[in-house]
Structures are given as C-alpha cells and as structure tokens.
Amino acid sequence: MKRLLQKVINIREGEGTRVGIMAGYVFVIIASYNVLKPMTRSLFVSKLGLEQLPILYILLALVVGVVVIFYLRVSSNRRLDRLINGTNLFLMSNLLLFRWLLGLNVDSAWLFYSLFIWASIYGVLTTTQFWLLANHLFNAREARRLFPVLTSFAILGGIAGGYFTRFLVKQIGGTANLAFVCMALLATTIVLMNLAWQHREPSVERTRRAQPSPPKQSFRIVGEVVTLIRNSRHLALLMGIISLTFLVVQIVDFQFVAFASQANAGTDDLTGFLGFWVSTMSVLALLFQLFFTNMIIRRFGVGVTILFLPVALLLCSVWVFLSYGLISILAIKLGDGAFRHSINKVGTELLYLPISTEVKNKTKAFVDMFADRFARGLAGVLLLIAYSWMGLSVAQISLISIVMISIWVGLSFSTYREYVNSFRQALAKRRINADELINVSINDEETINSLIISLASRNERQVVYALKMLESVKGVELIPPTVPLLEHPSADVRLHALHLLRQQKDSDLKLWPNVAPLLYDENVEVRREAVRFYATYAKDADEKLAEWLKHEDSRLRGAVLYYIAEKPKLARKLLDRRLMRSFLKDGRDGRIQVADAIGILANQNYNSFLIELLEDSDSGVKMHAIRSVGQTHDPRFVSILIENLGDRNYRKVAREALAEYGDTITVTLSEYLRNERLSMNIRSGIPRVLSLIGGQQSVEVLLDNLNQEDDFLRYQVIKSMNKLRARFPNLNFDKRVDAALLDELKKYLRILAALHVTDSSNGNGSNPNGSSLLARVLQERLDDHLDRIFRLLGLRYPPRDIYNAYAATISQNRRIRANAVEFLDNILSNNLKRVLIPIVEELPPEQVLQQANGLSDVEFHCQKEALEALVFDSDPWIRACTIFEIGKCGLIDEFRAVIAQAKKAEDSLVQETASLVLKQFA
Q1: What are 271-307's pLDDT values in tens digits?
Q2: How many Å apart are CA 378 and CA 54, to the nearest integer?
C-alpha cells in the first residue's frame, strides 16, 4: 500500500512524514476557513441586511490590502515558526473575543462588519503562512512534485469544511458556536506546524524560493507592472480579463447570498445552506478538473478554454434576469464554482506562458495585492449604485453582469490571438523557463504543435528547450517525433529526448533497440539515463543490473553504479566495499564514477573512499570528490573542504560543497573566519559560503565579523550580506550594521584627512595626475571605503535604491550626482546626511572634514603627522607607500627607527620597501 501511494503521488523516501504533516495542516486550515465563511456571511446578512453588502465589499477592498501590507512589514524580521505560532494564537484570541461579544447579543453594525472583514483577513494570513512554511520545508525540485499533492488536500479541506458546517451548525447550538470549532481547528494547526518545523532540513533555507515582497517592494512592483502593461498588448489584455473575472464573480456572489437570505429565514439555516453549497461547488470543481479540463484543453485549445467561464456566466445571467429563482441562481453560482477554479484557472495559467518568469511573478504579485481588490471594490460601487440607490432587483442586477461579460468575451478573443503570436515569439527567443512549469500542463493543440515542430530545428538549444517544455504535456503521442533525436549529434539533445521518452506512458521495451546503443554513449549523463530507461520498464531489471556491474565496459559499469546509488534498497542488495574498490581500478573515469555514486548513496560505510579521492592527483577526480563530500554531510570532511577554499582550482566547488551542510556548520565557519593564523585566501572564501547557506544564522556570523581589520576580508563579509539581503529580504540585519557604517565613515575621514595634508604639502591638491604614489593609493582606498559604505547602506535601506544612488555618485555627470544627493537627503538620518552628502557632492576635503566634526577623532595638522599615522596602518600596501613617501620627502632621519623596525615586518613588501628606502634615500 505504501509503495502504491508513493508511486501514485510521487513521494520519495524520507518525504512521507513532511508531506503527511503539511497535507494535514493545509486540510485543517482550509476547512476552518470554509467554516468561518458561511458563519460570517449569514450573521452579517441576517443582522444588517443585503443593503450593507456593497459597502462591505468596498471596505474589504480597502482594508484587507492595508492589513496584509502591515503584516508583511511587522513579520519581516520574525522567525517563521514563532511568527506562525504567534499569529495563530492571536487569531484564536480574536475568535474567543468575537464569540463572547456574540454571546452578549451585541447587535451593533461594527461587530458584524469587523467579523466579516476579519474572516477575510484570516483566510489570507493562514494560507499565506502555510505556503511560506511549505517553501521553507521543500526545495524547488520537491515543490515541483509535491505542491500539487498539497493543493489537492487543500481542496479536500474546503469540501470537508463546508459540509461540516452544514450538518453540525444546529448540533452545536447555533452559528455563533462555530467559532469554537474554528478555535479547535486552529489549535490543531499549531501542533501540526510545530511537528513540521521539527522535520525541516538544515540546508533547505538556502534553496527556498523568494519570500513575499516587503511593502515597499510591493508598491514598486505596481509601478513596474503598470509600465509593462502599457508596453505589452498581451499583458494588458490578460489584466483586462482577470479584472473582469473578479468583478463579475463578486456580483454573482452577491446575487447568490441575496437569494439564500431570502430563502432561509433563520441565521442557522442560512449558515447551513451557504456551507453546503460552498462545498458542493468545490466538489464540482474537483470533478470537472479531474475528468473534463485536460480533455477540453487538448481537443479545443486555449481559445475555447478561456471562454468556458464567461460564456457560462453570460447564459446564466440572462437566465437569472428572465427567470429569477432557485434553479437559475444555483446554475450561475455552480457555473462559477465549477469552471473558475478548474478550467478557467488552467486557461489563465496557460495565457501566462509566453510571459517571462520575472514579468510573470511581478504581474501575479500585482494581481494579488491590487487588481483583485480593486475589481471587487469596483463591483461593490456598482452594486451600491444599482441595488442600494437605484433600487434594482437582484434579477435586474444581472444586466450589469451581462454588459461586463460581453466585454470579457470580446477581450478573450483578442487575448487568444495575441497569445498565439506572443507564444511563437517566446518560443523562438526561449523566454519561457521550462524548469519552472511546476503546476501547468501544456495541453493546447497549437502550443503542442509548435513545440513538436521545434524538434526538427537545426538549433540545438531550441530543440532542448522544446523537449523540456514537452515534459509537462500529458495525453499526447510524443514518441514518434522524439525517437529520431536519440541519434542527434548533440549529447544534450539525446539526454533530454531519452528523458522525455522515459516519462511517456506508452513507452516500453519495444523502444529498447533504439535506446540500447546509448548505454555506451560518450556522454556520462546519457549513459545513466539509458540505464534508468531500462530499469523503468524491464521486469528483470535487478538481475540485469547485477550482470552489467560486471560488464567489461567500464563506462557501462559506472552508469549502472550511479543508478543503483540512487536507489537505497537496491544499493544495499547489490553493492559492497569490494565491488566499489574494483571501480577504482578502472582509471580516471572509474574513480569519478565512484566519487559521484558515494555522494548520493548516503551511506557512511563508503565515505572512507572519498579520503583517497580527495588526494587524487587528477584535478577532475578531486573536483568530483569534493562535490560528493558536500552531499554526504559528513562532519569529518568540513576542515578539508575549508582548506580547499584557499586553492583557486577548487574553491568554487568547495564553497558549494560546504553550503550543502547548511546551518550545521555555521559555528565552525565562524571559528575559521576569526582565526587570524589561517591564510587570508581561506578566510576570505568563508563569507561566500555563508551567503550560499543563507538563513539568519549565517547573517549572525557575518554581523559578528563586520569588525574585521583587514579591508579585503571586511569587504567580503559585507558583500556576502548584500547577497543574502537580495535573496532573502526578510532576514534581520540589526544595529551592528549601523556601528560598522559609522566605523567605515571614520576610516574614510581618516584617509581623507591624511590625503588632504599629504597632497597639499606636495602642491598637488588640485592635480590628481601629479599626485604621489601614496596619494594615488589613498584615493583608491577612499573609493573602496565609499563602496563599502554604500553596501552597508544597502543592508538598512532598499538595496536597489542604494545601488542606483551609488552608481549616480560615481558618475561623471553632475546632474546625475545631484539626483543622488537629493535621494540620499530624503532617506538618510541626520547624522549620516551630515557626513555622507558632502562626500557625494565632492566638496573640498576641508569642508567635508568640517561637516564631520565630532565623528572623526583624527586631525592632521601637517604631512609629518599624517605619515606618522599611515606608517603603522594595517594595510601593508599603504605602509609600504608611506615608507617610500618618507624617503622621497627626505624625512628618513625623523622616521629612521620606524623604518628599521619595518625591515623586520611580517609582510615582505614592507620589508623590501624599507630596505630600498634606507639604501636609496639615506
């Protein structure tokens, strides 16, 4: 049974517990919301009447968005498990308060408005938190397989919640007591969330996808999307039909609630009625999705798919207008429920296909934050005018829907024509990211035909691209056009063709004569995929694999070894140390195969082989061994990997391998980073490892090292934090950044003061080309400090804004620099403005230093004082240039003792410069 379930829903070994907990979590969350939904609606309509509903829709559009933005702002620096626990406990206390007020028979309008709006916020927050947690627990590849499973449980939860409400509302003492049911369900989610948190993997943090945009980024997205819509006809049409969908659906919902309130006299009856039909619509949507959606898309394409919902609603709206009653109202609501969440949703996702991933993400964020609420708010305004002010009946309101749907249908025809053109262009330019088609199945006939035609292209990249896209196609015969590609000259094409064939339901061992030659392919990935193909369809696969392990061709043996390593049970059956040792005798390729296999075996009994391979004289073998070490997560290898950060041949793969360990090694990395006896080549590589690991622990280690004396190491620390800030906007960068920023400004001012008196003494204050070597070096250091200052600002303010300000600051265009000054003047604190703006404005050094009076405790009155300070600088290059400047200026007698001491310095450059100066200028 367990094996059958794993095969049906594609759950792999080690994932079952996490998936089970998260499936239960989303089931309970959606069920609780579908209990609240009919409860709050029935209470509102029963107590306040239908006339208040349009006003409520308008308030919802205004309030929910503001609350969500506030929530994002408040939650941005909170640990996820604590955030979810705190939010759920807060929501439970809210439910208790509402139930208490309802028990007091409070009939004030504010209570029912608050309860309805609160329930809408509840739905947004709880589902958002669930998907945040899911993104935290599953990496991108796991999400591709498992998120559809979680979505299915969400649908089941919605079905259960509505029916639960219908059959229990009177059993538990009335509508108000459903609040207790929701509290119990919320308490269950707290237990499930904490269980899920305990089963998270340490290294998931670094691979999770983007967090929800912080408020300022969300507002920036609005401007960007508006610009994109202006410049893209396809996007403009798509936004039009999405907005009209929300608007019409809100009007239909009003008509349904209006009829329900008229047909059910009591609050409890209305609650049960709404709960029953909410679930029934979910059932219909699920059935339609399972049995009809793919068939309709495959047979009729996107053009017909996107017309299903508007045409159904148009016909039903006419019916409601002509014959208002139970059957017509149920028909229009069931049409909405059955089609909107099934065929229309899939059709809309397909319309997004020609749009690049970046634009698509921004557009969806725009829809979630603004378009949805604007359209529903507009529906509220129209209903307020038509129903409350003009006095139109519920049936007559269908006239508004008929007009809006007619526009919707017209836009759908235009959108489809634009979709076809856009898709062809996107296919030619490869703008669609095939790897990110997680929940979208391409079933449109024209789209599929375009992809199949692309398989005959002479452009290798276009063929590979089409093969990747076709992986999401279901129910279409793809074997005939794909088989010839097994003989394609490109290994990449052969690999993806073979992978596509292995996924086809109609594939079997009849294709083996075409596949068998690929067992000896020159490309290792193709050989491995050929073995996977055989193992997928052959009944005697285990016996054949055991036979191939002894094959005389080492390339085939290696491919089989890798496949077996992917299957833990099979590996325990067929592999042992003696067999593994025999592969090491197969030369370079054999040693690489062993290294790769051990990395995915997850069996410490074989890790000792990696010790040998890490010392291999062949750089390719060693590189594969390092990569596999990271996959093992064996703590014995951490120090070896860190040592390889100092070797430029292996530092990149060593960084990636260390990052695989995740948070488990952040303490160790911190110790190495602070170890001053280590080579700077090794220490400077550690911040980049931390940036790859991600997470708040990595941030804490980097923050603790902002005070590193070495400029280059400090730069690497700051740069790594910039990367983390860009990837994970919700990470917390505390006041240690402010302290580092202040320290960096002091160092800038110290160098500026030294440069000012040094250059002035040489008479080159206004002629940088005539400056001494020391002056030129000091100017370079000023530039470096300014870079670090702006990078630190990027940790406290929006990174993109700060980057643009920095680019403007170093521009030669005075107008652009003036814009940067204006921007910084508006966002920086007074203390920072006082120092930084004179620097950006390129005021004379004496004015900059005067403005910074009190920040810098260093003041040089003459060149000699500056040289006395610089000769002991922590930067060896500045020390060497200072010693040379002393000799050139004839000041050896004053600094003879210092120069003599410099001859014994640890840095060879300082030693040689001191010796040279004593010989040449003494």
Answers
A1: 777 778 777 877 877 777 677 776 776 677 778 888 9
A2: 10
The amino acid at 532: R
The token duo for 198 is: 């305990």
Cβ(336)–Cβ(249) under 8 Å? yes
Which tokens is 356 given? 């690049």
The candidate with the shortest Cα–Cα distance to 913, out of 329, 902, 922, 615, is 902
Sequence length of the chain is 922
* Tens-digit pLDDT profile for residues 737-749: 999 999 999 899 8
Which one-letter DSSP state was computed for residue 861?
A: S
Angle at alpha carbon of residue 286, lines to 284 and 289, rounded to 5°:
105
Average pLDDT for residues 765-787, to the nearest whole number? Answer: 77
Which residue from 588, 578, 526 is spatially nearest to 554, judged by alpha carbons?
A: 588
Flag whether pLDDT at 762 surpasses 80.
no
Q: Helix crossing, 233-263 with 398-429: angle to 10°?
A: 150
Both tokens of 72, joined, read: 């994002």
Taking Cα atoms as reference points, which of 629, 616, 712 lies closest to residue 665? 629
Q: Does the domain at residues 1-207 carry the CATH identifier 1.10.10.60?
A: no
Exposure string for 214-228, b = 16+ CB within 10 A, e = fewer = bbebbebbeeebeeb
Residues forming a β-bridge with 853: 856
Q: State CA 838 to chain mean position distance.
A: 38
List, in sequence order, the alpha helices (H) in 633-735.
638-643, 651-660, 666-674, 680-683, 686-693, 696-704, 711-727
Residue 430 has pLDDT above 60, yes or no: no
pTM of the entire predicted model = 0.64
> What is d(CA 910, CA 917) in angstroms, rounded to the nearest whole number?
11
pLDDT tens per residue across span 799-822: 888 888 888 888 887 778 888 888
3-state SS class at 635: helix
Nearest to 744 by CA among 776, 773, 784: 784
